[in-house]
Amino acid sequence: MLSQRQTPTASMKIATYNINGINGRLPRLLEWLHESEPDVVCLQELKTSDATFPAEALREAGYHAAWRGQRAYNGVAILARHAEPVVTRRGLPGDVADPESRYLEAAVEGVLIACLYLPNGNPQPGPKFDYKLAWFERLITHAQGLLDSGAPVVLAGDFNVVPTDADIYATRSWLDDALLQPESRAAFARLLEQGWTDAVRRLHPTAPIYTYWDYKRNRWQRDAGLRIDHLLLSPSLAQRLKRAEVEKAVRGREGASDHAPVWIELR
């Protein structure tokens, strides 16, 4: 755990990106890393085992990595440019029997980075939705402890929650989806009420902003998107928030993930 005396570097660009299969989309990932040059990247849906994670290719691109893989499903990683992520936790507390690779925590240059891939929860109702809500409760409990520590913390990742109707295109087709259910939204709201700042909404309070466009039904072409990838900041980091953006154009490239990278810049 970081001490309260540690502070972030003068400027830091932190991104989250659901890559949707890191080995299959490695050229797109390397291309984006070269163009955008984030200092820290949280990746989700690696869909690869620990042994087949492309650490060497990322190292050649200038990034050290910590990862927790899972063959064909899930998987999270934290990349850091010119720094080695110091792993502090390799799973979300609260259920030692949970086999899914969805949470990784590491210190990078004085900031504690929590990379998460919250369960989708579909179909709902059912056991997958129950697992989603239980995982969310575990996150809320752990997040409170992180806040209580006083450390500068970023919760970054694919939360699989559309917080409000302003975070989805005008539609009724998603109303039964787990991402929009009142229980999912209430859990996200409770997380924010602890004192976390939704970085994108802090700087873009009313703009229609999406981070995910399903491959089906021409949703990308119609800009029929959802905002489900979030960066939440502890109070000390919220004071240093300078910029927050979605690199939407990355989603439109050939062979791209169905998510776009989202990043913030801290003073």
Overview of the structural elements:
One of its GO terms (biological process) is DNA repair. It holds the Pfam family Exo_endo_phos. Belongs to the DNA repair enzymes AP/ExoA family. Its cofactor is Mg(2+); Mn(2+). The protein has helices at 26-36, 55-60, 127-149, 182-193, 199-203, 235-238, 248-251, and strands at residues 12-18, 40-44, 63-68, 76-81, 86-89, 103-108, 111-117, 153-158, 197-198, 229-233, 241-246, 262-266. The chain is of the alpha+beta class and 267 residues long. The protein has a single domain (12-266), classed as Deoxyribonuclease I, Chain A, CATH 3.60.10.10. The protein has a 6-stranded mixed sheet with strand order 3-4-2-1-12-11. A 6-stranded mixed sheet has the order 5-6-7-8-10-9. The longest helix has 23 residues, at 127-149. The chain is globular, with a radius of gyration of 17 Å.
Detail the topology: elements first, then pairings.
Layout: E1 12-18, H1 26-36, E2 40-44, H2 55-60, E3 63-68, E4 76-81, E5 86-89, E6 103-108, E7 111-117, H3 127-149, E8 153-158, H4 182-193, E9 197-198, H5 199-203, E10 229-233, H6 235-238, E11 241-246, H7 248-251, E12 262-266
Parallel strand pairs: 1-2, 7-8
Antiparallel strand pairs: 1-12, 2-4, 3-4, 5-6, 6-7, 8-10, 9-10, 11-12
Helix pairs in contact: 3-4
